[in-house]
Amino acid sequence: MEKWRAADRLLKFSSRFASGTKLTCTIINYDHTHPLVSECCFFPIPFYCCKSKQGKYFYSVATTVHRNPLFSIISPDDISYFKTLLGERGVVQDALALDAANTDWMGKYRGSSKLLLQPKNTEEVSQILKYCNSRCLAVVPQGGNTGLVGGSVPVFDEVIINVGLMRNILSFDKVSGVLVCEAGCILENLISFLDDEGFIMPLDLGAKGSCQIGGNVSTNAGGLRLLRYGSLHGSVLGLEAVLANGTVLDMLGTLRKDNTGYDLKHLFIGSEGSLGIVTKVSILTPPKLSSVNIAFLACEDYTSCQKLLLEAKKKLGGILSAFEFLDSDAMSLVLKHLDGVRNPLPPSIHNFYILIETTGSNETFDKENLEAFLLHSVESGLVANGVLAQDINQASSFWHIREGLPEALMKAGAVYKYDLSLPLEKMYDLVEEMRVQIGPAAKVVAYGHLGDGNLHLNISAPAYDDNILAKIEPFVYEWTSKNRGSISAEHGLGLMKAAKIHYSKSPETVRLMIDFDYCVFELLPDTSCLDDNHSIICLCLSA
Ligand SMILES: O=C(O)CC[C@@H](O)C(=O)O
Ligand SMILES: [Zn+2]
Question: Where residue 431 sits, what CATH number does that domain have?
Fold first, then answer.
């Protein structure tokens, strides 16, 4: 009987979910003979919790190809209900718009939703969720759909709820620097609003032109300024969220200090929409500092990059606002595939490139400080070559090299993306070992936020190929786990890594997450559980 334990546990969990909850399940290292899992081992499978007419809960499993017939299909009555609730504009059934919403930014994950809903306020979000819950309609929350791990698109035909029409800035307090806004605000719009007010967002990332702040918060997006301003767990002072059953949770505080009980907002930051839909956010923003300086440097070895980071922290201190790196393969790729990009340090290609940004309030001092740092780094042999941006255009051309990498990779062909946190001293060992592991079949391209230990390991190949994938995984996850890294530094788990959580979280931690979610939220989030044999059963809430 031992061998049925994983499946039994799955069954036990299923009775805990609200009827209509759709889950994705992957069973790893488990006996293939159980009827439940025999056909679906090693694949994420949709898993539905249903309520029978007698009120008894049961589960039903479909393969990745077949949709579970027990799960409700959108009916004309549902459409009428949503049109009455949201108006024509809020109910999108147009094929082109749906295709865009069903497909992730990389074109790698694709759902088949027939319905996209666009609520205009929290009450509408609440009504939608209450209705979908009662009708057994699966939903998937979506922001700007810029995610890289398949977390923002439907797995099958879930109703997509996009809060993009909820884009009002509700208040801004100059003295405290607290901005309160709706979840659908585009990050770049918030950045320019704050710029006019003399403030900045503590968050900046390449996808700023289309990502939404609700999605940023739900995925705990890291980005380029984390080194200076910390993670969103520090900057987000409050939020409002709607649970799967329609309950609105008002946690929209604007206070820096509030020690009254558990700080529940933190559960929503980074929970990838699994606990509910974030509808409003209050965020602490720092004042804009007048002097921004950027240097683009080259190092010949990874040890020098690490030493340079330490020196930068010591010599530039509080004004250091970014420390990004790319290796020579990343540089070659960006030069080849992005129009108008040129190497600021011609003519030769160096092994590593570092972008250092300082942000301060004393223009003369800050510039001289960075110049002196650069000079000293060249003299001491840490830096092979370097250049300081002379104007804003040159500064943005430096940033373009780093921020343009995801786009350059897309242009180069197929790409396998890994977003890892690793101890700094080990980080580049993985890249080198991966090169040996992969051989000539693909290019291993490394870049990332060196200042906060976040490596973006990208494997670029002419086309997707299972043989290449088999060389990458589970090697990359095992390596990361062995070195006590995280398999998701800032992109989240999504569909890509929901089943891999055990590489970064202990069985006890994962089990606590699940038990907690059941007790408090009466649902299961995008997470995993372990059976008693330490096989992994991963469950990922889509509704
Ligand atoms: O392309 C990637 O792997 C990382 C994307 C993004 O997080 C970045 O830092 O540019
Ligand atoms: Zn990043």
Answer: 3.30.70.2740
This prediction's pTM = 0.85
**Phi, psi for residue 509 in degrees, rounded to 5:** -65, -45
C-alpha pair distances (Å), 367 with each of 22, 258, 374: 55, 39, 11
Query: 3-state SS string over 27-96?
Result: EECCCCCCCCCCCCCCCCEEEEEEECCCCCEEEEECCCCCCCCCCCCCCHHHHHHHHHHHCHHHEECCHH
Span from the CA of 123 to the centroid of ligand 1 (angstroms)? 34
**Rg of the chain, C-alpha, whole Å:** 24
425 and 453 together in one domain: yes
Residue type, 385: N
How much is the ipTM here? 0.99
Count the Cβ atoms, other than its own, within 10 Å of residue 73: 11
Q: Which atom of ligand 1 is nearest to the CA of 417?
A: 3
Same domain, 313 and 245: no
Q: Residues 286-312: pLDDT tens digits?
A: 999 999 999 999 999 999 999 999 999
Residues with CB under 6 A from ligand 1: 206, 405-406, 417, 419, 456, 458
Q: How far is CA 438 from CA 326, 418, 470, in A?
A: 20, 15, 9
